[in-house]
């Protein structure tokens, strides 16, 4: 049940990750503090231990933080880079700063909270299955292609930063065919994917947003959940689970002959099947 | 818009010998395409030619051998440019305004260079070897090989030991593996057949982008798990269940095109395995959105290695395209343990026809240029080369190895052992042979025990044939043939393809 502090200065990413894995798997360490992260990739990648907490206290962790991660919690007290939570299966990630591109690609479950803004291609092809519903909350704003090809899960963008940028970039929700995107704005994004429609939040949505915002505020204490929830929200959901269903040729339909194709009498075809 | 009549004539004509037909109804009951019809009041079985796809099911099962299927002649004025197929495709698009879908590999008349490459044999000077009496090694290791091997001797015992750390390797008893075909594209019984055959024959099968169904984890030692752009069914246990991980960038039948499993095929089992809702389309985007460069590819490769503790080789599968050699070089430098190249004749469960038939290059040329390029750059040892795309028999395999491949993937050939007749209707999802379908009444037609035996038989036969061909060449190990293009000669191949293939014309 120990605590391990690792100074990552001059530590190669493979050595750093090997240290983390060994601590978690062999020494039963539940809390790891990383100091002086210098862009080491894959921190937390492939960890499956549910009650482990990794805190990147100083410095910036590298790409693919928490990729394929399946349980632990990672807190980054600084900015983070690209690819956080790529194909992540479970667990939580908190980033007390901005994050880069391609966050939560193909994410399957778990939660990601970014206090600041995030870059392009956030939440592409997130998916959900029964109780496995991934969610990502971004306190600031995001770039283009938010939720492209999204197949499930929840994306919540709060737009709390004071800059002039729109809350999301262009081509938001292009090809989206599952899940839901909530934006804290009253403006419909430009170049919105034609696969989605914009709705007001219903009671169920409000409960979901409230839950996520409260968790967001409990980690990022300078924000007050009531202030955030008082803002206007819109909801984007896909109009079809099958956006490209009609793009392809049906080919032969293999119809049975009509009643009087061969005769005038009705034939009970069913009984010749199983 | 539809006319009230169809402009598309039949492709096949069903001929039934009425004297032989005993009206058992087997063809009516078995044809999922509704090509047979029982007319009760006249006590007659009739064929509906328009519905026939020529998959041979009725011919095979008819107990009195009363059915013949023959190709329908072209009813239009003969025209080399406007062939019957081209006209029918056009009529269909005029009706629906849609992209034409197809299954299986391209049937287009692009040259098959295997048929124009011949093998050498020993005569007089270098005796041939009889594999029935002498050892003949066809074992193959897939994975990154070290640049050099450092041997150290123990101070006391003086015994040698290898100091160099060897990357993880797959050990193949025969250099033939089953290509990536997902549970979804093919039925669970088909997956089971291939998995069982692979594990009993000491080779590998590939999950495709469909996740690994729970009953198939037992074959993990002989499983290659695939990670593709949709990341369906990809999680830690899945990555660690397999013997190797394959990142799919492209597929020979549809280079540059994503995958699309229609919602009709996503039943309960598939939805569990892929962790997606039942009835929703499973859409794999065309690119991986986390790979926009060779550097990004390296990052994905190493994230998978990191997640699997550097214990599994990572393959990268691409389709053979114009500058395939440079791409393969980048892939090897990105850290892949094997490069898989899928040629233009590679199969598919569903692809746009226009892409399948017109995009990509033949696998023979791709193997030759990739092997040559990697050798010239001095990095050939860093990754194995696996070829795929329309391999039909053991001589195709051995020619590929002599051109420079380490092993091959077979897809269509593997399915043919299970009964596939290459009718190309996989995308309809009502395969009469229980292979490319998820409909329960159809999938139960394929018994995985029998399927596994038949797939095993094919591998056994090919293994023996490969040994025979090696022996004839006077070679006793497949390692000695790899990239040994001197054992190949070309007939009827002209420059510049001769120099691309790096082989001499026959007689020279």
Descriptive overview:
With 274 residues, chain A is α/β, with parallel strands linked by helices. Chain A has a domain at 97-244: Glutamate synthase, alpha subunit, C-terminal domain (Pectate Lyase C-like, 3 Solenoid), CATH 2.160.20. In chain A, 13% of the residues lie in helices and 22% in strands. Chain A has three helices and 13 strands, in the order βαβββββββββββααβ. In chain A, strand 1, helix 1 (13-25) and strand 2 (31-35) form a beta-alpha-beta unit. Chain B is built from 15 helices and 23 strands. Chain B has helices at residues 26-30, 57-61, 84-96, 188-201, 236-241, 268-274, 294-307, 324-333, 353-358, 363-376, 394-403, 412-417, 440-443, 448-472, 497-501; strands at 12-16, 36-39, 44-47, 67-71, 101-102, 117-119, 140-142, 151-153, 160-162, 170-172, 176-178, 205-206, 223-227, 244-248, 259-261, 282-284, 314-319, 338-342, 351-352, 384-388, 407-410, 488-490, 504-505. In chain B, the strands form eight sheets. Chain B has an eight-stranded parallel beta sheet with strand order 11-21-20-18-17-14-13-12. A three-stranded mixed beta sheet of chain B has the order 6-22-23, covered by helices on one side. In chain B, strands 1-4 form a two-stranded antiparallel ribbon. Chain B is globular, with a radius of gyration of 24 Å. The model of chain B has no long low-confidence stretch (mean pLDDT 93). The interface between A and B is large, with 61 and 63 residues.
- The rough form of chain B would be described as globular
Number of helices of chain A: 3
How many beta-strand elements of chain B? 23
Choose one word for the global shape of chain A: globular
Number of DSSP helical runs of chain B: 15
Oligomer kind: heterodimer
Distance between the termini of chain B: 60 Å
CATH architecture tag of the domain at 97-244 in chain A: 3 Solenoid
Please give the order of strands in the largest beta sheet of chain B: 11-21-20-18-17-14-13-12
């Amino acid at each position: 049940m120990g605590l391990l502090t690792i100074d990552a200065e001059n530590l190669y990413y493979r050595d750093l990750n090997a240290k983390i894995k060994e601590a978690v798997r062999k020494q039963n360490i539940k809390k790891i503090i990383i100091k002086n992260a210098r862009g080491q990739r894959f921190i937390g990648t492939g960890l499956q231990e549910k009650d482990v907490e990794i805190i990147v206290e100083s410095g910036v962790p590298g790409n693919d933080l928490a990729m394929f991660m399946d349980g632990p919690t990672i807190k980054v007290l600084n900015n983070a880079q690209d690819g956080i939570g790529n194909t992540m299966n479970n667990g939580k990630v908190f980033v007390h700063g901005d994050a880069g591109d391609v966050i939560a690609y193909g994410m399957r479950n778990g939660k990601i909270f970014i206090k600041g803004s995030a870059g392009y291609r956030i939440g592409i092809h997130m998916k959900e299955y029964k109780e496995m519903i991934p969610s990502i909350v971004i306190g600031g704003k995001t770039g283009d292609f938010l939720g492209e090809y999204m197949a499930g899960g929840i994306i919540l963008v709060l737009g709390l930063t004071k800059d002039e940028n729109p809350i999301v970039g262009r081509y938001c929700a292009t090809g989206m065919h599952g899940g839901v995107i909530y934006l804290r704005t009253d403006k419909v994004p430009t170049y919105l994917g034609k696969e989605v429609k914009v709705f007001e939040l219903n009671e169920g949505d409000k409960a979901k947003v409230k839950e996520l915002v409260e968790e967001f505020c409990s980690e990022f204490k300078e924000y007050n959940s009531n202030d955030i929830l008082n803002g206007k929200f819109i909801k984007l959901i896909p109009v079809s689970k099958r956006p490209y269903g009609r793009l392809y040729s049906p080919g032969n339909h293999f119809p049975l002959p009509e009643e009087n194709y061969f005769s005038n009498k009705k034939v009970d075809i069913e009984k010749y099947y199983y | 818009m539809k006319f009230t009549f169809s402009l598309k004539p039949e492709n096949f004509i069903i001929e039934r010998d009425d004297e032989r037909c005993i009206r058992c109804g087997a063809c009516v009951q078995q044809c999922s395409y509704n090509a047979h019809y029982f007319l009760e009041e006249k006590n007659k079985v009739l064929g509906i030619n328009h519905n026939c796809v020529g998959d041979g099911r009725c011919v095979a099962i008819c107990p009195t051998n009363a059915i013949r299927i023959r190709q329908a002649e072209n009813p239009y004025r003969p025209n080399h440019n406007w062939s019957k197929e081209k006209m029918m495709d056009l009529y269909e698009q005029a009706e629906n305004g849609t992209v034409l879908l197809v299954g299986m590999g391209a049937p287009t008349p692009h040259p098959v260079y295997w048929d124009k490459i011949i093998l050498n044999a020993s005569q007089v000077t270098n005796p041939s070897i009889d594999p029935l009496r002498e050892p003949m090694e066809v074992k193959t290791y897939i994975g990154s090989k070290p640049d050099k091997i450092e041997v150290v001797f123990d101070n006391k015992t003086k015994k040698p030991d290898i100091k160099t750390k060897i990357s993880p390797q797959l050990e193949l008893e025969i250099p033939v593996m089953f290509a990536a075909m997902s549970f979804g594209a093919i039925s669970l019984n088909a997956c089971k057949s291939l998995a069982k055959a692979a594990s009993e024959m000491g080779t590998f099968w590939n999950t495709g982008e469909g996740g690994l169904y729970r009953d198939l984890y037992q074959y993990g030692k002989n499983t290659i798990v695939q990670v593709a752009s949709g990341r369906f069914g990809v999680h830690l246990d899945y990555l660690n269940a397999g013997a190797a991980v394959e990142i799919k960038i492209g597929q020979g039948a549809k280079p540059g095109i994503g995958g699309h499993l229609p919602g009709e095929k996503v039943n309960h089992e598939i939805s569990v395995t892929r962790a997606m809702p039942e009835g929703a389309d499973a859409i794999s985007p065309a690119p991986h959105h986390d790979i926009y460069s060779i550097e990004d590819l390296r990052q994905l490769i190493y994230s998978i290695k990191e997640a699997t503790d550097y214990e599994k080789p990572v393959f990268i599968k691409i389709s053979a395209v114009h500058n395939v050699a440079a791409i393969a070089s980048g892939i090897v430098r990105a850290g892949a343990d094997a490069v898989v190249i899928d040629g233009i004749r590679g199969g598919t469960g569903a692809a746009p026809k226009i892409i399948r038939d017109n995009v990509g290059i033949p696998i023979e040329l791709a193997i030759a240029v990739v092997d040559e390029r990697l050798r010239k750059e001095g990095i050939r040892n860093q990754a194995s080369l696996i070829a795929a795309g329309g391999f039909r028999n053991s001589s195709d395999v051995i020619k590929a190895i002599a051109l420079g491949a380490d092993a091959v993937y077979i897809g269509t050939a593997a399915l043919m052992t299970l009964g596939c007749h290459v009718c190309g209707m996989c995308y309809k999802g009502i395969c009469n042979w229980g292979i490319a379908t998820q409909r329960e009444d159809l999938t139960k037609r394929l018994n995985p025990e029998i399927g596994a035996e038949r797939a095993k038989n094919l591998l056994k036969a090919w293994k023996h044939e490969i040994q025979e061909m090696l022996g004839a060449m006077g070679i006793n190990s497949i390692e000695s043939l790899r990239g040994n293009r001197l054992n190949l000669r070309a007939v009827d191949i002209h420059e510049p393809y001769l120099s691309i293939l790096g082989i001499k014309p026959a007689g020279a």
